[in-house]
Queue: 2 jobs
Job 1
Amino acid sequence: MEIFLVVVQLLIVFGALWLGSRYGSLALGAISGIGLALLVFGFGMKPGTPPTDVIYIIIAAITCAGMMQASGGMDWLIQLTEKLLRRNPEMITFLAPLSTFLLTVLVGTGHVVYTLMPIICDISLKKGIRPERPCAVASIASQMGIMASPISAAVVAFVSISNMNGFDVTIPQVLMVSLPACLIGLLAASLCSFKRGKDLDKDPDFQARLKDPEQYNYIYGHSATTLDKEIPLKSKSAVYVFAASLLLIVMFAIFPQLLPSWNGEQLKMNIVIQIVMLVAAALMIIISGAKPKEAVQGPVWQSGMAAVVSIYGIAWMADTFLGHYMSQLESTLGGLVGAYPWMISIVFFVVSILINSQGAVVVAMLPLAYQLGIPGPVLLGVLPTIYGYFFIPTYPSDVATVNFDRSGTTRIGKYLLNHSFMMPGLVSVGVATLVAYLLTMLIY
């Protein structure tokens, strides 16, 4: 009977995750609330603890990034990126993913690349390069950057939860591993994509489409660009403010002795990040002319707040379920993960496929990993495996990339899993994990 109850409760958890992912956005967190309610009121489980510290940091970071977008600073970053890509069109398969990766690293969310995707496709078509090659890996890169951003929910949550569990790691120390690992992973994926598929002049499907005048005009009759847009100095100042705030956070992380302390207790980095991000957002309003109303209507702020609700609901439900069965999990899985601690990477990857959020994976599963006795350096080494939601191509950036590619070469296959993002996703995550694991073994 007890096993039957566990199975039913587990089905409720996974059912809530599956149903929430089908609706997407805020629904993931809200429907997780249904699962939480069933566990608490239906099965009498004690409610877990929602990850409020992580949520506060995310709110501060997306408020700052949203203000930069509202000020026009994001447009300047996209314009600078486009200039780089158009100067070197023959290297688009390498430069496009590098560009989307760095934009995500800077802003902390992968939702800033939608303006860039049509430009990548346009440059590819004009150079005669199959757009699938740069577009697919660029979409993957936009999500890989989350693991290398000093203000992303995933990195901040990893540091906060690790510190609470005895692994005293800082944001710069995480980036020392994740940044080179993700870059090497993306380089490997770009190399694999360089000659991927048939060239456009040898692709019979593409050539058949060109024979239709309407299709020809749709593919070649339009040009996507941001170069005709004038960016005022006020907008550029928002980027300088944002960059300065990131440098300040990194400086405090490297030199914690600069932080104030009270009764021997030093100011924690999660509070530092919140203060610095809020001050930066305020300066963008005062100096850069960012309008708060436009910020909350922008995609960065809206997608970020959707992520907050998702993490809130998912992590609370997961903490309730796992906390209830923690002693059984420790006795059942303790020996296995003790002998093969890297196997937690499989759990991270599978959970990521289900919930489409790297931050939520960290908040929901990292405490369990520490409870099972997995060392912090091992968990840092397998950090890239928190990105697995490319596996089923329903994530907004992947869907948008398919729609932006006017050539039709970036596609979701007939059998769902044979899509354009599978190969670069598996290569990127696989190589990045191997590199990160080796780096942590060398450092720790």
Job 2
Amino acid sequence: MFADRAKISVRSGKGGDGHVSFRHEKYVPAGGPDGGDGGRGGDVIFVVDEGLNTLIDFRNIRKYKAGDGEPGGKKNCRGKDGKDITLKVPPGTVIREAESGQVIVDMSGDNKRVVLLKGGRGGSGNQHYATSTMQAPMYAQPGRPAKELELLLELKVIADVGLVGLPNVGKSTFLARVTNARPKIANYHFTTLNPNLGVVDLDGSRKEGHSRGFVIADIPGLIEGASEGVGLGHEFLRHIERTKVIIHIVDAAGTEGRDPIADIYTINRELDAYNPDIAKRPQVIAANKIDAIYDREDSALNAIRAEFEPKGIPVYPISAVSGEGVRELLYHVNHMLEELGQEITVFEPEYDPDTAFLKDSAEAAYTVEYDRENDEYVVEGPKVEKMLGYTNLDSEKGFSFFQGFLKSSGILEQLEKLGIEDGDTVRMYGHSFDYYK
């Protein structure tokens, strides 16, 4: 069984705790603090492995954990960092947050390596807390906690061209003829379970230093009711979401006793029901099995052309068995792809783990109060202080970013509840701003 979905849980490493200790040396009866810092927790990293084409490994192992950072030691010894964990996935794997189903990252295009969860920072040893009034601090900072997520991995095949059609119209035969793929071929009235991929190499495969060819995929599952999951259609329709051009293969000879025009409309309804954007993509009809047509002048082929060519959908009569007409079809498809360009579809992120964890952490806490004595509103909190520390408020982009943070964190909403008005002053750790909605 082709494994194109998997549900797993991942956990980054916890930061090591800082250490509390003091120097004990000869002739130094009251040595200062020398507690070392804890090590950083390991990251959870996803990388693309071009040699993989399924998610089967994730069906066997469901939990993945990076190493924890070691605690600090005496004599300013820093704890070792936790070991990162690297998970290899096939190109085209979409990683989602399991509960919401939102996209975290699409491992396609330039996304070859992604740090999904960062390990916790190590805590500071007591040496960092010595002051003129507190020369023997008994406190060290604990390491930051680990982060854990439940993920849904979903493989969406990266192919330029998708083959669609009802079962037994000759898709597998066509794919075997035109590509290096070797799909299993049989006269079954149910769909193949595996999405077969192959590379089409055209004559004159090098043109001005560029290869001429494309990746083609036989998308299984397309039978009537596929968009509702019949015949595993819903499970496999996702693989067509990246394709730029659709080759619609139909049995022009009617060897199964079906109406080829009705078949085309049936499949297009399924595409539209699953994702209207897919149904709008450029199509070409491959009228297959013309080797089984005895009178081509009086056949369904002319009816197919009369029905679809006026709608801008070209029809190419082919025989996947003999190869007749296949060359012309492939060159036309290659020309369509050249006009559409090389950029692949990459699904945009919808979920940011760092932001999600921040909302649940104490670090996200803040206070918003009105200072009557100074007639100003005061905003404080660890995250606010940190944001001010690394944001360039003098730049338009930096100030806009900070405003976005104030809005997304709920601070602006809290200010409005307190009755702030245009022109009022807001103070944050030495910075003062005039409020304007």
